[in-house]
Amino acid sequence: MKATDNAAAARECMMSGTRPMLLMCSASAETLSKSAREFVRELRGEGVRVEFHAPGSAEALLQSTNRLLAEIPLESLMAAGSQHPPHLLIIDDAESLTAAEGTSLRRIVQGLRGSPFRTVLLVRGTKAELQRLPISEISDLAMIWEVDGLSGDEAIVDEPRVSTADAEPVMESVPTQSERPIEITEPIPDVLAELARERAETRGFDVTLPRRRLGMQVKVAAALLVFVFIGYAVNRLWTPAATTSPLVYDCGLHGDRESVDVLIARIGRTIPTSVTAESKRFRLQVGPFPSESAAKAARAQVWRLGACRLEPVVARASTATKRKVGG
């Protein structure tokens, strides 16, 4: 395979997205720089967008990704059959990426699989030296291109794998020479959630809480609603007992006291009554009765007075009470 064929295979990989990453490596910094410039120039001629990133921190890597994809609407970022051209994040000096940055880059690439997002890693070193670098932990996602002018089949290294669009984005682990576990010294945020939050803030939306904190607020609000409902239920249980005893029959307002006395004479003397003055008129009430059953027992007597309704006792400001009890 000639060098031009190697470049064509790498270009096809970035345009089609069969692999989300391209790892260009060379023992010569000059050769790597020249090949990378020519490769990126050709891709730009085909409409590819480019963003450069220098290793620093996982957060800086996320910010570079956010800037690269800022022009793509969030709702269409993962849409099938997207018409957006590839967007390349080019990471120079990729051999100096830390383990935390490598883990973050894996999460970004996996989370944005199927989108126009691509990554090109430029490594100053041979393919054999990759196994001693933290970047080897993500080499299973990449097509490896050695650009030292090799003419054999080793120039493009691409292990067979399923590359259909419906394949699950769960990558099998690839054994490496390094046996020590990766220690991440800083937390890696939820990539898609952080990307959505930052892009919303760029467009002027008010996004102040991460999803997890927002979820906690929803749980607290739900708990408060439960407590309010329980308090309301308890109040409903206690309120009837407080408002049904004692009870009186309200027989309405009358124009003069004599007509009230005539009505009172129609019922038995053992039935308690009261007369209340209200705005030069007189309100006749029968009772109070200690319970609803006692009030029902006196209903036949109350019917003689006309239309009266049963209601709880209500204290009135101005009263002139007359109560008959026995005799």
Secondary structure topology:
Blueprint: H1 3-16, E1 21-26, H2 29-45, E2 49-53, H3 58-68, E3 87-91, H4 99-111, E4 117-124, E5 142-146, E6 156-157, H5 191-202, H6 211-243, E7 247-254, H7 257-264, E8 273-278, E9 281-289, H8 292-297, H9 299-302, E10 309-312
Parallel strand pairs: 1-4, 1-5, 2-3, 3-4
Antiparallel strand pairs: 5-6, 7-9, 7-10, 8-9
Quick structural gist:
The chain is α/β, with parallel strands linked by helices. It is built from nine helices and ten strands. β3 (87-91), α4 (99-111) and β4 (117-124) form a beta-alpha-beta unit.
Polypeptide structure, described:
The structure is a single chain. The chain is an alpha/beta fold and 327 residues long. The chain folds into 3 domains: 205 residues, 3-Layer(aba) Sandwich (Rossmann fold); 35 residues; 66 residues, Alpha-Beta Plaits (2-Layer Sandwich), CATH 3.30.70. 36% of the residues lie in helices and 18% in strands. The protein has 9 helices and 10 strands. The protein has a 6-stranded mixed sheet with strand order 2-3-4-1-5-6, with helices on both faces. A 4-stranded antiparallel sheet has the order 8-9-7-10. Helix 4 links the parallel strand 3 and strand 4. Helix 3 runs parallel beside helix 4 and helix 3 packs across helix 5. The chain is rod-shaped, with a radius of gyration of 42 Å. The N and C termini lie far apart (126 Å). 23% of the residues are buried. About 13% of the residues have low confidence.
